[in-house]
Amino acid sequence: MENDLRECRELLAAFWEHLPPVEEDVIIERMHTIQHNIRSLTNRKRALHEEQQALIIQAVTFACGET
Predict the structure, then answer these.
(1) What is the pTM of this model?
(2) Count of domains for the chain
(3) Contact between residue 54 and residue 11 where contact means Cβ atoms under 8 Å apart
(4) pLDDT at 16
C-alpha cells in the first residue's frame, strides 16, 4: 500500500510538472482520478492502522485476563 501511495503521488507530481497544453481536459480528469486514489489509499491506511490498534488492545486485554 505504501508503494501504491508513493507511486500515485509521484505520478500526480509528474502531471503537474509537465502538464501539456494539448487535451488539457483529459489530463485534468486523470489528475483528479489520481488525487481520488491518493485519498482512498490514505483513508484505507488510516482505517487499517486504527484496526491494528484495536486488535493490539484486544490482544493485551485478553492476555491480561488470562493471567
Answers:
(1) 0.62
(2) 1
(3) no
(4) 76
